## 1
Amino acid sequence: MTTFSSIVRKYEKLCDNKDIPCETVMAYLTELSQRERYDLYLHYEDEMPEALEKEFEAGMDRILHYEPMEHVLGYSWFYGYKMIVNEDVLIPRPETEELCANILAKMDEWFVDNQSIACADVGTGSGAIAIVLAKEEPKVHMMATDISEEAVVTARKNAENNEADIEFVTGDMLQPLIDKGIKLDVLVSNPPYIPQEEVMEKSVVDFEPHVALFGGEDGLKFYREIFKNCKKVLKEKAFMAFEMGWDQRERMSKLVEEMLPGCEYEILKDMNGKDRMSFVYFK
C-alpha cells in the first residue's frame, strides 16, 4: 500500500539527491490532487488513489530530470491568477508580483484624478504583468508587446482565461508603440537581464526561452534600448517600472543618470532585501 506520507518521503529523498528543492514534492502533489495542504496532512497515512499515484510518479520523473514543475502542470499561479506556461514563455516569478504591487500603488499615487491610465507591458511573455495590472486597476487601458509570436499566442490565451482586456502587439521592444503613435502614462517591462555568460540552473537553461533570459554582456542591453526610445512613447507626466537583477544597482543607477539625465529614479528592494525594482519618473 502506498500512502501519501511514504510517496512524499520517497520523492523528497530523490529530489535532495539531485539538488532539487524538497518542497517541490508537496507543492506538486497539492496542485495535482487539487487538495489543500492541511487536508493532505490530515490524511497523510491514508492510501493514495492508484490513478493519482501513477500521474504523480510520471510527473515527478519529469521534475527529477529538471523540467520545471510549472511545465509539468502546464500552468503557474501569479498574483492569484492562473497562467498557462510553456517553452515559449518565462515562468512568472514571485519577485515580479512585488513589482506589480508597487506599480499599482504608484498608479494610485500619481493618477488619482485620471479617468484612464495608458499603460504598456514591453516584452510581456506570458502576459502575467499586463493581466494583473488590467485586472487590479479598473482605470488601466493595457497594451502588451513581445517580439515572439509564440509568446503573444500564450499571453492572449491567458488574458482570455482571466477575462483581461488587453491589446497585444507583436514586435521588437518599443517599436510597435512608436509605429502606432502611442503615448503612455506608464511603461512597464521585465526584460531579459541575466548577463550572457552567467551560469544558470539546468531547469532554467534547458526549458525556458533564452530570448526571455539573457540581456547581453552585462545584462542591461534591453534597458538601454528602452531608455533610448522611451520619450517617443511617454507623456510629459509618466513613469517607467522595471524588474532588474539583484546585483545591478550601481550599473542601473549609472545607466539612468547617463541616458536620462535630470529624471528622478529609485531602486526598490524586494521582501528579501534585494535590489529588484527600478522606477524612473518624468514630471
## 2
Amino acid sequence: MTVLSQDIGLQLYSVRHQCEKDLEGTLHRVSEMGIHYVEGGGFDSYGLDKSAFSELLARTNLNMVSVGASFEELQDSVENVVSRALNVKARYVVCFWVPHQDTIFGIEETQLAIDVFNEAGRKLKESGITLCYHPHGYEFRPYGEELLIDYMIKSSTYFDFEMDVYWVKHSGMDPVDLFNKYPDEFHLMHLKDRACGTVGNVNGRSDIENNVVLGKGDVGIKEIVYAAINYGKVKYMFIEDESSRSMEQIPASLAYLKLIMGLK
C-alpha cells in the first residue's frame, strides 16, 4: 500500500488539556497544522451534544476516523458506541484499556477481553464499523510458548488491532518484528517516540514526559513507517504525544514524517 500525507492523523488525547480550555480553537490549530484526520481522545463529545460536535468537526475540516470506547461500554452498552461512531461517520472504534487489578493481568483477563471484543466487534460490524484493540504492554507477558498478545491476536474473530509503537517498544518488543509477524492484524497505528534510555516494563505505565518528537527517541520510527508503507493493512497512522510539550512537538513530528515519507 501507499501511505499518503492525508493518512497521517492525530490522536486528540495529545491535545486533551487544550481541548478542555478551548475546544474549537484547538481543533482549528490542529487543522492549520495540516492534519485533517483525527482519532477521538475520550469517550464523549467534549461536553457538546452529538449534532454540535459533528458540526464542529466539519467546521474545522477534521474527519474523525475512529472513536474511543471503554471496555465497560463494549461489554454492557455497545449500542451507545455504535451511535457515537455513526454520528461522526467513524469507521473504527478503539478500546484503549482492559480493566485489571494493579499489575495483575493474565489469561483470565485476556480471555474475558477476547470474549467481550468478539461479541462487540460482531455487533459493530453489522453497522459497518471495525473494532480495534490498542495493547498497552501488559499483554506482552508469557503465555505457554508465546505471549498473551499472540493468543489474543489468534483469537480475534471480530476485532483487529491498533499498534502503539511506544508501548510495544516499552514492553521489550520490536514493533517492526510484531508488525511483520501479524501484517494483517494492525489497521491503525499510534506513532509515539520514547526518550533514549527510558526503562521499560510490561505494566503499561510510563512517565508521559518521556514522549519526544518523532525520530528523536529509541522506538525506531523510520523503520516502522517504512514497514507500514510497504506491508500490511495499516490505514491510518496517528501522531500521539502525551507530554506537556505536545503543541510544540506535534508540528516537528509531522515534519519528520513527511520528510521520511518523501512528502516534502
## 3
Amino acid sequence: MALVEPAFLLFALISCLLYRCASRFDSLRPFVLVALSLFFYSTWNPWYCLPITLTALLDFNTAWLLVRTSNVRLRGVLITTDITLNLLILAVFKYFNFLHENTANIFGAFGHTLPPAPFRVVFMVGISFYTFQSMSYVIDVYRGEQEPARGFLEYFAFVSFFPTLLAGPITRARVLLTQLQKPASPLTDYQGSRALMMIARGFIKKLVFADYLAVNLVDRAFELPRMYSSLEILIAIYAFTVQIYCDFSGYSDIAIGVAQLLGFTLPDNFNSPYRSESMVEFWRRWHISYSTWLRDYIFFALPSARRAKWRLYWNTLVTFALGGIWHGASWSFLIWGSLHGFGLSVNHAWEALWPRRGRQSPRRPLVRVAGVLLTFHFVCLTWIFFRCDSLQQVSEIFAGLTRWSTELVNIPWPIPVLIGLALLAQWWPENWNRWTENRFALWPATAQAVALSGVAFLVAWISRAAVTQFIYFKF
C-alpha cells in the first residue's frame, strides 16, 4: 500500500478514528497502533513483519538490561552486542547479495570460483529507517539520555509507527515515544488544516513534479544517455535534482501530516535545501533527521578532533562514506557519500583558514550568490552517482556531458517550467507558509473540502499515467 494510493488515504482516515477512540486507554493505545502498523507493513509483504519484530525485541530487552546494571564492562558488552546484531540483521537483508557478488568477483580475479549463494535475500522495505530509529533508542538509554519504554507494545508502536515506517523521518524516542505515552491531544482547526495542507502539498510534490520529471525525462536520459545531447543530459541532471527533492520531501510531508491527524507532532525533515550557501548549510536543511543521526551516533562516536585538527576532516569523510553505504549496496553510493564528506571537509577547512568575523552578519550579495551556485552545482554533480545503478552508467553520463552537443529535441516544454517552479519555491518565505496555513484554517469546512477535492482532482488528472514508487523506498 503506497502512500499515494487512494487506499492509503482511506486507511489513514480509519486509523485516525480508531487510534483516537483508543487513545484514552493506556493499555489499548499501543496495541491499536501496533496492529495498524503491522497491517500496513504486511500489505507490502507479510514476511517483512518478522525482522522488525526481531529488531524491536532485541533493542527493547537490551535497553532494560542496560538500566538494571551499573557494571561498566557489562554495559559495554551489552551495547556492543546490540549494535553488532542490529547491523548484522541489516547487512543480511540489505547487503548480502552485494557482498556475495563482489566476493565472487575478487575470487574470480585470482582464478578461483566462489560457490553460488544458496539463496537470494529479499530486500525489506524500510529496514534502514526503523533499524536506525531503534538503535538510537538503545544508544540514548545507554548514554542516560532516554528513559526506557514502559512495555514492549509501547516500544513496538514507536519502532513500527506506520507514517514513518517506510522512509522516515527517523524519529527519536524522546520525540515520538514520549507522545505515545500520553493520550492523543485534541485536533484543533489549525492543526487539522495544516495536516491536510501538508498531505496535499506532498501529493503535489510527488505526483505533479517528481513523477512527471521522472517519466518524461530523467529515467529515459539516465538509461539511454547516448540518445540525448549534452545539453539534454544536463537538463536531466537538474530534473533529477528537483525530482529527488520533491519525491522525498513529498513523502515526508505526507508522513508528518498523517502523524498530525493521529495526534503526533513530528519535526520537519526538509527546509529549502537548494538555497544553501555551503555544504554545511545544505546538510542542516536536507533530510534533517538523517543528517542529525549521522552527527550524533557516528561522527561524535569517532575519536575526538580536539587533539588533532585533521581528525575533523577524517571523521567527516568516514561518517558520510558510511552514510552513503547506508543508502544501498553500491559503489556509486559509497562515492556519493564520500564526495559529500569531502565537500564538508573543504567547507570546514575554508572556515578554519578564513574565519568570518561576526558570523551573524550577512555576507555580501555576490558572495552569497556564488556560494549558492557553487553548492547547488556540487550537489547536482554528486546526484549523478546517487541516481546511477553502476559506475559504468556514471561513465556514460559523463561521456554524454563532454560531447558538447546542444540539440533540444527530447525536452517536453513542461520540464523546464517544473524545474524553474520547484527551484523558485526554495526561496518562498517561511512566514508565507504560516500565513497560508492560518488563512486556510479560517475557511469553513465545506470550503476546505472543496479546495482539497479540487487539488486531488488536478493531481489525479496530471499524474494519471505517471505514478512511480517513492525513491527512498529502496533504502
## 4
Amino acid sequence: MGRKTTNESVRERQVVAQEAARIIVDHGVRDYLVAKQKAAERLGMNGRGSLPGNAEIEAAVSEHLQIFGGESHEDLLRLMRTAALAAMEFLKEFSPRLVGPVLAGTADENSAINLHVFADSPEMVAMEIGDMGIPFRPYERRLKSRRGQVEMYAGFEFTHCNETVQATVFPVDGIRQAPMSPINGKPMRRVDLDAVQKLLEHV
C-alpha cells in the first residue's frame, strides 16, 4: 500500500509540475511558487500532499518547450542569446555574466535576459547605460548568499536588440561567489562572453 501511495504522490507532483510549466510558458508567470499554487488549484490538488520543487518545475518547463516549442523555441533562444551577447559587449568593463533562463535554455517570449555585472557602485553601471542613450529603470533584487543571508542588490532594466535585459549589480569581489539559485539551492551558474559565444555556435 505504501508503495502505491508513493507512486501516486510522485504522479501528482509530475502533473502539478507539468501544469505549472504550462502556466509559466503560456501566461508569463515568472514566480514558480505562484505557478505551482495556481496549478494545484486548477487541478483540485490543494492540500493533497507536497507540491513539486522548483527543480522539478524547471525540468517540466524545459520538457514543455521541447515538446511544444520546437524550432520556434530554438530560434527564440538564439535571438535572446545574441541580444545577451550584445548587451554583455557594451557592459564589458563590468565583467558581465549571463545567468537564468536564457542560459539554461528555459527562456520563453516573456523572459528577460538576466545579467550579473560587477562594479564599485551601481551608479557606475547606470552611467554607462545612460551614456549609450538607452532608457532604463532601476530595480532591487533579493538574493540569498551562501551563508543563508538574504541581501538586496540594485539593478537596471533596459531594452537592447528588442529584448528586455536585467543587469543586477554586485560588488567587484562578488564575481568569486555566485548567489544561491532559487531553483536548486546551489550557487547560480554564471557564464562569460566567450561561453555565450560558444553557446550560440551550438544552438
